[in-house]
């Protein structure tokens, strides 16, 4: 997230935020000047809205996974989680892109942004029957991107406030690469899962085709290489397994055909 007003941020190659503190105050007051959480949130309205939407996404995902209010409400929370994620992605896309223009150049530029990918992701799944697996990337991304903002709020509350929360945020930052790989793994698994769900009548006809387009965008992402990296690692692992003498010939042949098919479908092949 790109901070506005009282804080600045830079973005690393993983698409997450690395915080760079700056002075706080409307007129250049020093960072030591007292400021409340509400004042900080009002001075960073766009980021505050995205933070609240991410918290809402996490809460909705929790209530979908653990139906405290009844199983019948699961679809409600499922749609609310995806809708909140779509709104978050739209806000982030608004920050990243210039003023909207109805042109091929603008659309091509938008499709390069990760936030656009997950805006489309939400639209793809929001009309289908609830699919637990599709909420996993949404929830983990919300948790990761809310980490930097949470740390800012804790710093405003006090340098020693909520040590258990600070410890949790530190662990999130430490293991963020593992979590990005976990998200990429879910993105890949959802492709065959979508095909099986279509055969089982649990989703609409066009979902696998739309999702294939989403997956090609993730594979070609400039700022998040984990999907492309994981595809490569899975290919190497399967080739090593099928190279063993104990691997049956029919399984080896099927795996090699599947690898060739996926390579043909990959962008730039």
Give the SSE order as H and E letters.
Answer: EEHHHHHHHHHHH
For the biggest β-sheet, the strand order reads 1-2
Helix coverage percent: 55-70%
Taking pLDDT < 50 over at least 5 consecutive residues as the criterion, the unreliable ranges are: 1-32
Count of discrete alpha- or pi-helical segments spanning 4 or more residues: 11
Distance between the termini: 33 Å
Helix/strand-derived category reads: mainly alpha
Would you report the number of β strands?
A: 2
General form:
globular
- Biggest beta-sheet profile: 2 strands, antiparallel
Number of domains in the coordinates? 1
Cα gyration radius (Å): 21 Å
> What's the rounded overall pLDDT mean?
82
Relative strand content: under 5%
Describe the fold and architecture.
- This protein has helices at residues 37-43, 45-65, 74-96, 104-110, 114-126, 132-157, 163-174, 176-199, 207-219, 226-242, 249-265, and strands at residues 8-11, 17-20.
- The chain is mainly alpha-helical and 269 residues long.
- The protein has one domain.
- It has a two-stranded antiparallel ribbon with strand order 1-2.
- Strand 1 (8-11) and strand 2 form a beta hairpin.
- Helix 8 runs antiparallel to helix 9 (207-219) and helix 10 (226-242) packs antiparallel against helix 11.
- It is globular and about 70 Å long.
- Residues 1-32 have low confidence and may be disordered.
